[in-house]
From TrEMBL:
Keywords: Membrane, Transmembrane, Transmembrane helix
Keyword Ribonucleoprotein: no
Naturally occurring in which organism (per UniProt): Myiagra hebetior
Listed GO CC annotations: lysosomal membrane; trans-Golgi network membrane
Protein name from the UniProt record: TMM79 protein
Length: 161
């Protein structure tokens, strides 16, 4: 489903990436796009804090209620996945040709939407969370494979430079 969503958005959404000839400009563009990917994480932190305040679990070492535990786990996992996403996206931006830089904001949007889907499905029940997690993890895995391909096959001479 993820390749279909990304391809459909790539073809049908009417925007193009700006002209980014240098690697530093591409990294700044990626950093700006990644700012939007923090939205689900920040929203999760806010909801986690509110749910902790509204529950009777104000003791720092006390047992957490299920609602508080769901939001805390979501925020923790989202932070870990965001770090992986951001570093993969930064490397990806250096290897993509100019005409494919439109993928940077599209993958950012997919990350944010898939984290929100994971959060909703995780709140419904733990057995439903696989769809949202796979929408987050599989594009991340594809980016990692492309980055490794770019480093070891396309430009092996520039691997450490």
């Amino acid at each position: 489903l993820c390749p279909c969503l990304v391809y459909g958005a790539y073809v049908f959404l009417p925007f193009d990436a700006p002209l980014l000839p240098t690697i530093s400009a591409r990294l700044v563009y990626t950093l700006r796009c990644a700012t939007f990917a923090t939205f689900p994480v920040v929203l999760g932190m806010i909801v986690s804090g509110i749910s902790r305040l509204c529950s009777s679990a104000l003791e720092p070492f006390g047992e957490l209620h299920r609602e508080v535990e769901i939001h805390r786990t979501y925020v923790s996992q989202s932070i870990h996945l965001f770090i992986l996403y951001f570093f993969n996206m930064a490397v990806l931006a250096t290897y993509l040709p100019q005409e494919l830089l439109k993928l940077i904001p599209l993958l950012t949007g997919l990350f944010a939407i898939s984290r929100l889907i994971f959060w909703m499905s995780y709140a419904i029940g733990r057995s439903f969370r696989a769809f949202g997690f796979s929408m987050t993890f599989l594009p991340l895995l594809a980016m990692l494979l492309w980055n490794l391909y770019g480093m070891f096959v396309l430009e092996p001479a520039n691997l450490l430079s």
